Q: What sequence folds into this?
């Protein structure tokens, strides 16, 4: 598929085309060769004074349609949501292109022309400008989002707003990365390494991680930051030994002021890494929330995706966690896994609901380029309604009936059916960290390989990132250089001193 364009909206144009042609290579040109390539998508934007003309044409060997739009810009706006000229032009271009691609393929996109990761953040901004009804109408009429997804956004935004309202100008959350797993799942694109290949790295990595945690705590203290939540993720943190987990949690407690911490999560993740000693170390170490992630309870699908545990091990791990004393257990599922069917997914979700965990996150399979599925040539489903759509529809019905509500939602590129990931929870068990990080509510201080520190200026959209080294061997070898990068945190808050003193009054 070739796109010919003459404007600055190439990123959004390419992403929108990819929704309809996700298994094809897309080439973007600013000049056409003498022999015009087919299929070809032409998008042209011409601006002169207050006038803008948009032209879109889609050509294949059997299909040729075009659309256009004329925009006139004035200083006044007739809608509550104020948009720049660029944003209005970008949206109008996307609508024209979307309509032609829908006609060509016969497919509607559940999220319309939206391609961003955080639709709830946009929904909230619209609600603040014109009210929730206006936001929902804007989603369906201006962004062409389906009524079902617009309604889901409205409900989710309400629960998210309650959580991010807890944050204060000096609030932050702490993320700790344990980038090791028993084996690498076929769909995984995270920076994680199997124990077989990285066993020698774990000891040195763990020592340096504890040192970085101590340094990060001193920086947070010097900046007078307030800790809201802690999340130990990966990878699979429970690939560490019980003694290492005990030391890790002690290090966090001994260096950070935990008196303001509202939530402490450890991803227990893979059931085959869980035992009583590790669970007791986590619970006694102060973590009040764990995540046991089956992804599916279909043993055949587990084999296909490279998981070395059975469905029964998941059930056993859950019961053991209850026995040890955990009162907030999250479980992750993935819709659209290879070999899974809507019937099998329903069976999995029904069994999970019988366990009655406090929260359930339903992800949609995302075909990331660095995953083994993609390298092996697996394609996204191109059906009119892929199985993942049926799975998500059932999960919304089932989880609502079982007393769960959607409290956070985000999207990724190359998702099966262009769908979404949704966190569901019983009342009082929404994950604060999940909302804080996805909403970009406040600063996230990251420790460990692959972790990213995100410095957030309060009451603004300004965000600055500090990247740790990606892989454990890089982290170990470049540790001192990485700590120097983190000195930027203190400088960032020193530069904000006067600003913070004003908004914290």
A:
């Amino acid at each position: 598929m070739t796109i010919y364009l003459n404007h600055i909206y190439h990123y959004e144009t390419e992403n929108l085309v990819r929704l309809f042609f996700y298994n094809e290579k897309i080439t973007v040109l600013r000049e056409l060769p003498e022999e015009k390539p087919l299929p070809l998508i032409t998008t042209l934007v011409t601006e002169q004074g207050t006038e803008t003309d948009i032209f879109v044409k889609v050509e294949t060997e059997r299909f040729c349609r075009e659309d256009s739009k004329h925009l006139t810009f004035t200083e006044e706006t007739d809608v509550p949501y104020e948009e720049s000229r660029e944003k209005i032009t970008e949206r109008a271009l996307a609508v024209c292109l979307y309509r032609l691609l829908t006609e060509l393929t016969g497919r509607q996109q559940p999220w319309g022309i939206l391609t961003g990761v955080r639709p709830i953040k946009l929904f909230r901004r619209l609600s603040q400008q014109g009210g929730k009804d206006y936001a929902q109408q804007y989603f369906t009429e201006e962004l062409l989002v389906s009524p079902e997804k617009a309604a889901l956004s409205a409900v989710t935004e309400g629960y998210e707003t309650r959580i991010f309202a807890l944050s204060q100008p000096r609030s932050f959350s702490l993320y700790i990365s344990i980038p090791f797993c028993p084996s690498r799942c076929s769909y995984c694109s995270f920076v994680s390494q199997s124990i077989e290949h990285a066993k020698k790295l774990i000891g040195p990595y763990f020592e340096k991680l504890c040192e970085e945690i101590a340094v990060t705590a001193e920086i947070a203290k010097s900046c007078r930051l307030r800790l809201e939540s802690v999340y130990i993720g990966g990878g699979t943190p429970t690939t560490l030994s019980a003694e290492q987990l005990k030391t890790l949690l002690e290090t966090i407690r001994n260096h950070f002021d935990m008196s303001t911490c509202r939530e402490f999560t450890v991803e227990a993740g893979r059931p085959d890494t869980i035992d009583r000693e590790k669970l007791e170390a986590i619970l006694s170490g102060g973590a009040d929330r764990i995540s046991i992630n089956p992804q599916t309870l279909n043993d055949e699908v587990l084999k296909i995706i490279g998981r070395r545990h059975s469905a029964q091990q998941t059930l056993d791990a859950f019961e053991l966690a209850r026995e040890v004393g955990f009162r907030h257990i999250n479980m992750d599922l993935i819709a659209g896994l290879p070999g899974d069917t809507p019937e099998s997914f329903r069976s999995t979700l029904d069994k999970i609901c019988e366990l009655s965990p406090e929260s359930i996150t339903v992800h949609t399979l995302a075909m990331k380029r660095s995953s083994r599925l993609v390298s092996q040539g697996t394609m996204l489903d191109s059906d009119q309604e892929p199985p993942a759509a049926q799975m998500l529809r059932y999960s919304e019905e089932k989880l609502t009936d079982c007393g769960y509500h959607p409290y956070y939602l985000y999207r990724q590129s190359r998702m099966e059916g262009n769908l979404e990931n949704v966190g569901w929870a019983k009342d009082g068990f929404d994950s604060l960290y999940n909302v804080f990080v996805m909403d970009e509510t406040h600063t996230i201080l990251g420790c460990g390989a692959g972790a990213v520190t995100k410095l957030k200026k309060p009451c603004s959209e300004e965000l600055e990132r500090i990247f740790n080294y990606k892989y454990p061997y890089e982290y170990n070898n470049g540790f001192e250089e990485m700590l120097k990068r983190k000195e930027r945190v203190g400088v960032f808050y020193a530069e904000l001193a006067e600003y913070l003193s004003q908004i914290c009054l």
User: Anything to note?
Assistant: The domain at 289-327+329-428 is CATH 3.30.750.200 (Transcription Regulator spoIIAA). The longest strand covers residues 40-48. Confidence is low (pLDDT under 50) at residues 369-383. The radius of gyration is 24 Å.
